[in-house]
């Protein structure tokens, strides 16, 4: 494996991460603004990416902004926001061709960074307010997006599971915001939220590509002249105890029911047991060779998909399956039984060996993508825990069956959420 | 092996046609971690009526059989093939499209063993009455999952309005009724006809040794014997150039309506001398008007006719083709009518030379970016190879095309009689 280095420069205004690689024909730069999740400001923060993409001082309309990107040889740009553990992260990302593959291009790095800085730092603002028409229009767009979540059944079921499971925790705050907040948002209050983000959030800047370190670092420092004073600390979650398992059933017009189950692992990215948790999850439901897939789908033909995934910053494990409405009892029992088997040590050497290889493959495959590299290192920022790729692979290799069984016994079922058809498919309690 | 150089991106790949007819593409890239391989047959959901290998009369098999066959390739007498990949930490998968069935894996070690496993399992069918019956429940759940997805229904609803007889109008997975009619004898008939090496290609890209991989594939194929191929007769029914229905709507339990407008291709625009140029032109024109820098997108968004972004689809194959613009909209009827007008004004209007050059530069940057993605590169080369096209030519075609040619191509492409609109409306209204 080739060594992947993230050169990290901790400066007062932002932390800069330079990742040099010859894998790509383009360079990628990402700005990540983070703040702990907070119910009061979340809808405004969710709205910001929409409004900021609609223009800057230099490119006052979305069309002008997008025309500039076209002129930068089809550079790809987006702003998005989401949850990272119990933080809300707003990400600006720009992917642009490396000059060496574009005949007659000069200074593409500088032009692209200048564009990105412009979008982040010079929005289209007058008198400490965004353009009112733009804000109204984007409120409408976000409103429609929130309303259509219910049409995406898998996403909807995930959201509802977390609503129920993490009721009293920051983690249940919806990263996409709330309909009931819309009326109170105006061009001024949104600008205040923007100011907080640009001045106070924790900011990490990543640059990935084939470049000359010193030169690129200099360009970045010349262009990114924010003059900011970060005050925000990234939030790191504490584990929570399970009292008793809660069951929630909801009915809608669906053909396929969704059985989603939430577990607490009590283990986050910086925990010593984290590699063992990855292995536990891999054996349980992370892969097509996992117990869930083999038993729920292959052995009993109950589902098209049945899988689990860990939330590594919050300490959760979530199970997803799409089943026929009348198979609830059977599917639930099989899923719970797989966990019980693992707690009792019913794990073969072959399962351990396969899963180790699969996780190592996943880690390596992830860093074959520029976005994957950024996420790999940003995860470490969020967790405040630095691990080298090589060390990470060695940690995975060293896990024993006892480690996995110990972790299996730490993992506890918290909430079972069932979205089912209106006619039939009763969940018997 | 023949060397294939792509100087624009400084890359080299290799090609060889083996004695049994199999096309082998090898593209070594030492700087990445993984190896990705795709083994594909030119056989998809549309190939339902054909003359089986060694027979003289044509047969018609049940809807969804190519996809069903894909599922069943993974099961052998001694169990599931996934396990061989899993044992080496590799991830294997497969997909069926209208015109192709493909088996693939990605791995970060033992790539030669994995290629051997891939070749062997796809070239060794094992279908029994019992294994075929068992799969029906799983595929039924897959079909029902798609039935709940409004975007999927929008897409297939649109195609069903464009085409009256061509089998592209049938859902790739078939229907719950049709899959229950599939027998293991049907699967063998399809397999023997379409999985002949002369109808297949393999593409290996990533971190592997060129000579030893080439030898492995050659030797593997020399050990196997295949019947002599006699070409495959495929029948797609009589289809006129005009659309089947110019407007159609369905109701679904969604909160936001959706609409899609599509243009059906004239059959004479789909031969292999035109298809690459036609695809580039359609792609650039749709981008010029309907991407976020496009004037029509701006109008639709500002007038509240579309929520967020447009969905753009472009399919050009030997026996069918269409382009489509869709979106979520609170005013589906108005959206559809306006997009149809927009298509017509693209046909009758003039394209500005500067706009065209901008679109060309943007496309150039996007072609460069495509080479970041090993999977995408492999898929694209195989797709065009199956159409009889060398995808390397894309750079030349893009650089040489003139505005006059573009105007002619646009005039042939768009026509009132070949347009349809399809809507999904909420049930309560």
TrEMBL record, chain A:
Residue ranges that the Swiss-Prot or TrEMBL entry lists as coiled coil: none
Domain Peptidase M16 C-terminal: residue ranges: 185-358
Molecular function via GO: metal ion binding
InterPro entries, per the entry: Metalloenz_LuxS/M16, MPP/UQCRC_Complex, Peptidase_M16_C
Entries under PANTHER family matching the protein: INACTIVE METALLOPROTEASE YMFF-RELATED (PTHR11851:SF186), METALLOPROTEASE (PTHR11851)
Name of this protein: Predicted Zn-dependent peptidase
Organism: Tenuibacillus multivorans
Lineage: Bacteria, Bacillati, Bacillota, Bacilli, Bacillales
From TrEMBL, chain B:
Organism ancestry: Bacteria, Bacillati, Bacillota, Bacilli, Bacillales
UniProt organism field: Tenuibacillus multivorans
PANTHER family: METALLOPROTEASE (PTHR11851), ZINC-DEPENDENT PROTEASE (PTHR11851:SF134)
Example GO molecular function: metal ion binding
Domain Peptidase M16 N-terminal: 63-168
Domain (Peptidase M16 C-terminal) ranges: 181-362
UniProt-recorded name of the protein: Predicted Zn-dependent peptidase
